[in-house]
Amino acid sequence: MREFLLGLRLLFGSGRGNRVRFFLMTAGGSLGVCCLALVLTIPQILDAHDGRDAARQPQSASARPAGATLVLQRTDPYGSHAFTRVFIAKGTKDAGEVPPGLTELPDPGEVFLSPRAHDLLRDQPAVKGLLPGHEQGLIRAPGLAHPDELFAYIGTSPDKIADEGRALKGWGYSYAPFPAVEPSTLTYLRFALGSLVLLPLGIFLSVCARLSAASRNRRLASLRLLGLSTRGTQRVNAAETVVAALLGSILGLGEYWVLNQVMTRTGLPSLRWYPADGALSATTVAVCLIGCPVLAWFVGRVSARDAAANPLAVRRTAAPKRPAKWGGLLLVTGLGIVVGYCATGFTDRPANSVGLNTLLIPAGILLTGLGLVLTLPLISYALARRLARSTQSLTLNLAMRRNEVEPGSTMRVVTGLVLLVFSASLAQGVLIQLEQVTRPSAPVQDYSLALSALTTEQRRGLADVPGVRAHAVTAESWTDPEGSADQPWASAVIGTCDQLAKLVRDSKGCVDGKVMRLSDPNAGTGQGARPGDELRFRLREGGKDRTLTISLPRETIAYSAYDPSAVHGADVLIPPSALPASARPEYARYVLTSSSDHDEVRKVLDGIAAVTPTAEVEPVGVNIEGLQQIAVLETLLAVGMVMGLVIGTAAFVVSATDRAMERRAQVTAVTLIGARARTMRAVQCVQVVLPLSVGLVLALVTGKLAEASYLITGGGEIYWDFAGVPVLALAAAGVAAVSAVGTLPLVGRRIDPELIRRD
Question: What is the C-alpha separation between 321 and 299, in angstroms, rounded?
Answer without folding.
Answer: 19
